[in-house]
């Protein structure tokens, strides 16, 4: 439970960090790196949560789908503006 | 103004979903005529009146028997059990306390005399327990929403300037969509984290 919640906290921190890197620092490539790491940590969180509560794992499915879309968007923005 | 309304709507939606989840009263067994159920088969003199959706033993320690609901009234139900009819209460003084995902719906009028397969909690204290639970869920969601609010402090000033000026792909969604989507996603995250926390407390490993 502690490990699962620690990974959850780490992804939440990366989530906030992305806003800072993208919107404050205007680093589109840096933000793309952060969001790929974020995606991996969300997947890790879902896998760890699913062992403890299946409902908790399902609750994060919309989140990872949206972040998948946001990752594509972030990379497209980099390609269009480099 | 429109943006504010959308965010408020999102928050209200998340809060009402959480309230509905926390308010589920496990001391009531919702039955309709024809339902199959497991019931205490110790006879009408037995005071435990244990009912469950799953096989197991009743509060007096005997195995539960298959029964069928003949008719359902206000707080009571007439069951056919072992060829006879017996009236059971459908609001338990005691109930299964094995967590929100457990679907056994076990209720009883007596606490378990022998170590049972389930743990019991008194329904009298259950309103306090569900208040505590609702408070835990609200705190968990608030922490996640806070992460979003901190992020938005950095986001908002760049939207009309820098972000408006960079080239966007054709599938770029309208700006107003991000607020409500993230509000909902942070709420789901908070709820998920609380469920894991709650399960972890009961099963320390």
Notes on the protein architecture:
The complex is a heterodimer of chains A (82) and B (205). With 82 residues, chain A is mostly helical. In chain A, 91% of the residues lie in helices and 0% in strands. Chain A is elongated. The N and C termini of chain A lie far apart (42 Å). The mean pLDDT of chain A is 96. Chain B has 205 residues and is of the alpha+beta class. Chain B has 2 domains: 2-23 and 126-199, no CATH class; 28-123, no CATH class. Chain B has 4 helices and 8 strands. In chain B, the strands form 2 sheets. Chain B has a 5-stranded antiparallel sheet, with no helix packed on it. In chain B, a hairpin with a 3-residue loop joins strand 3 (65-72) and strand 4. In chain B, helix 1 packs antiparallel against helix 2 (126-155) and helix 2 (126-155) packs across helix 4. The mean pLDDT of chain B is 81. Classes of the chains: A mainly alpha (82), B alpha+beta (205). The A-B interface holds A 1-2, 4-5, 8, 12-13, 15-16, 18-20, 23-24, 26, 28, 49, 52-57, 59-60, 62-63, 66, 73, 76-77, 80-81 and B 100-101, 144, 147-148, 150-152, 154-155, 157-159, 162-163, 166-169, 171-172, 181, 184-185, 188-189, 191-193, 195-197, 199-201, 203-205.
